[in-house]
Amino acid sequence: MNFEVIGANIVKILSKYWRVFLIEGLSVTLELAFISVLLGVLLGTVVAMLKMSRFKLVRALISVYVEVIRGTPILLQLYIFVFALPSMITFVKLNYFTWTAIALCINSSAYVSEVIRSGIQAVDKGQTEAARSLGLSSGQTMLRIVLPQAVRNILPALGNEFIMMLKETSLASTFFVGDLMTSYLTVKGTTYLGFECLVIVGAIYLCVTYPLSKLVGLLEKKMSGESSYRSHKKKAKAKA
Amino acid sequence: MKKLIAFVLALTMLACLFAGCGASSTPAATTAPAAPEAPAATEPPAAIKTVTPGVLTVATSPDFAPMEFVDASKEGQDKFVGFDIFLAKYIAEQMGLELVITPMSFDACQTAVAMGTVDMSLSGFSWTETRAENFNLSDYYNTGNEDAQVLITLATNGDKYADAANMEGIKVGVQTASLQEQLTDDQLAGAEKVVFSDLTTALMQLRNGDFDVMAVAEGNATSIIANNPDIALAGFNFVVDPKYTGNVVMMQKGADALLAKVNEIMAQAVEQDLYVGWYETAKEMANTGTEVSYDDAGNVA
Questions:
Q1: Which CATH code for domain B47-144+244-287?
Q2: How confident is the prediction for chain A on average, in pLDDT?
Q3: Looking at this predicted complex, what is its ipTM?
């Protein structure tokens, strides 16, 4: 391997194609990850609530949903959403970007629902019992007592989900939706300089995920602090 | 009581789900047998129905210069260029339709055509028996891209691999299920075959010594060598049956009216001798794609 040539090629590629990587590729990757995690959290919350439902049938249906999605590869789900669904649902015309976003959002909802469910179940049962015995309804208990404490467990995990999703959007490049990996495919397709393009794309991914994971680590530390837990407890009790 | 309501609700939900499935599968069931009947009735071109009315949707894998690739200086649909794109534009024009290129990976192109999410795919497809079984394939269009099939190797190897006699036991890289694989089987029977899935990765493998030479179409070899001075022609040419040198347009099985129309348009393009010009333009665009240039010693200038 001639590193001098590779380095020079990288500079040349960047000077010509930096827009393709940094403006088009990166923005689409961030957009896809953001949309899918945001909608995934909303949908995932509903799924988590249904999974803790009183009714056995609802719980069973939701289990099937979560297991099917967690038990099949994302690439397979993308194929289904991009090719199979549009030929069944003919009354809406969506582009590939939207279909991949929907697929990633559904995928993310299954993982997020488990994060939320375990976050909620990690809150001490005594909290619910105390709230209920003080006369709060089950809805109030969930909204005012359990959820605020659960957020502490959930938030850092959601940050990790975002980082995961950021990397998993690369699979959407199968449909050339314009993400970073699509930039790699298009530039190496014209230049036949594959390794150089991989180095560039890898560096960009790392530049985004590293600060994010540091941020998540910081959040984790702050949220798991003993003092904040106590103050939460006090606040919850004061409210009750 | 609540449990009962929930149960009834869940049942209705399930029923809706199945009803949805039923509704979506019925039109498919009725259109499927209708399609092959349309050409039998020899109706005028009105019988051709595209996925989106007024639009010709074409799938392509734009990572294969000079046949189809992306011109990064342009935006939207204009950025897709290459021989296949020019041909697709011509076909759409002649049919009076608007062309929409939908880019996707090579594998996905074939899935998309099979499932009918696009009208056709032009992505440098060669004719193979399996493809002919599962798709409607057009007549050949010949660009010269596949006319000659060659071996490339590291420039430092010189003409070590110019003669088939020297290739007993060496490793030859070939793309999976490609024409080159077939040629290697037939003409370099003494060599060991190593399969790869895409050209750019294969270049890295060639440098790593996974194989000594790799078999490619001459058109691709030119583009590769233009950007990679450490790679050179090995000096060996395969003997190629003209039957395999052309490319075909891929359409869904049963889209016979569309196939007839496409063949008619392509015959017209041949008559007007449009292919050579398109191919030269595409090659020029591909080779000026990067400004990476080299001096005589092969170093980056």
A1: 3.40.190.10
A2: 90
A3: 0.77
